[in-house]
Amino acid sequence: MIVGIDVHKHTHAAALIDERGGQVGTLILANSPTGYRQLIDWLLDHEAGDAVIGVESPGSYGRCLVGALAGAGFEVLQVPAWRTHRERHRRGPGKTDPGDALSVAKVVLTDRDELGPAEQPELVRALGMLELQRRRFVRDRTQAIQRLRSDWTQLDPAAEAGVVRCDRQRELRKLKRIRLGETLAQRTAARCIRELARDIDDLNQRIATLDKEIAELLTEHDNPLADLQGAGTNLA
Q1: pLDDT higher at 62 or 23
Q2: Of 92, 117, 130, 163, which shows the fewest CB atoms inside 10 Å?
């Protein structure tokens, strides 16, 4: 038998079909350990303990579900959204979660050999989380640099224009001590620039720490990216 699962934030929909594509039943379950247990019990009640399960683009909402099903011994496959979109189109208009789950199951029935495992290897998951955190730090640093330059150029545009990279240590040391004058606007701008320079310096250190952690993680696992042309320690 085959199961298709349509995942959402709070609930998931499951559809069970036989080897000919006939619908056996559907189930709505909570996105929680209790819901996962309910699904497994439901499958066992339908004598589907050896069912192959397809989950559409599990991502973050379906990750815990996939782990629970894989831990219970089920083969769990990832079904790309474009494949189920094609199946939904064949099924006709009207969208329901159980109907979408049925489309996922039909894709597994016809394209099983072309689908990969839904559960990501631990290394891939760890690298993904580290890279996401790194992108956040880079984004925050870029925003801090833009604010610093905006404040600086209002009071001393010539000096601001003369600095190409204000995220470099040499420039940051100067910016942490900057003085622009004695007027209220000058003192306020200088204080903001000093604080932003400290923020940028802190983010530089956080990014460097993540880069080191990513490199060490890849080295520890014999760097599966080493043979990919142009691949470095940063994946994004």
Answers
A1: 23
A2: 92
